[in-house]
């Protein structure tokens, strides 16, 4: 499975019912399965390599939406082993503003879609339209 990035512009498209509260924003939603965006190769089999590649993939998707990590309002993290949480926090803190981090949820799952995956990251960003 490859990365996906979607942008919804409320100024030019009919907005979904769940976004009636917002005006003149882009909603950038990214979901990544820690594979390298230029191929289907994983960054590595260990957690640190996969979580770092996840954040790099999200950084690229955000840039494509004219956004950055400062626009991320929610991160959902899927772990196959919650004992990796300290490594995740160390990696995450290199990307987000630690004084005002986005809302975050961490969930341990039995397995992810790809057998070699140990981590998955989903982000939601709100980007004001100029």
Total DSSP helices: 2
Q: If you compute it from the alpha carbons, what radius of gyration comes out, rounded to the nearest whole angstrom? A: 15 Å
Structural class: alpha+beta
Integer tally of domains:
1
Shape: globular
Number of strands: 5
Question: What does this protein look like?
Answer:
The chain has helices spanning 47-64, 85-92; strands at residues 4-9, 25-32, 72-79, 103-108, 119-128. The chain has 130 residues and is α+β, with helices and mostly antiparallel strands. It has a single domain (4-11, 24-128), classed as 2-Layer Sandwich (60s Ribosomal Protein L30, Chain: A), CATH 3.30.1330. It has a five-stranded mixed β-sheet, with helices on one face. Helix 1 runs parallel beside helix 2 (85-92). The model is unreliable at 1-13 and 15-29 (pLDDT under 50).
Topology:
Blueprint: E1 4-9, E2 25-32, H1 47-64, E3 72-79, H2 85-92, E4 103-108, E5 119-128
Parallel strand pairs: 3-4
Antiparallel strand pairs: 1-2, 2-5, 3-5
Helix pairs in contact: 1-2
């Amino acid at each position: 499975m490859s990365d996906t990035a979607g942008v919804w512009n409320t100024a030019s498209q009919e907005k979904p019912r769940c976004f009636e509260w917002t005006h003149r924003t882009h909603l950038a939603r990214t979901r990544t399965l820690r594979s390298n965006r230029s191929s289907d190769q994983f960054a590595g089999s260990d957690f640190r390599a996969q979580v770092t590649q996840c954040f790099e993939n999200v950084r690229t998707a955000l840039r494509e939406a004219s956004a950055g990590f400062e626009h991320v309002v929610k991160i959902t993290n899927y772990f196959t082993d919650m004992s990796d949480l300290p490594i995740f926090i160390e990696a995450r803190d290199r990307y987000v503003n630690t004084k005002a981090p986005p809302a975050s949820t961490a969930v341990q799952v039995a397995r992810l879609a790809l057998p070699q995956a140990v981590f998955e990251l989903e982000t939601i960003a709100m980007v004001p339209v100029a």
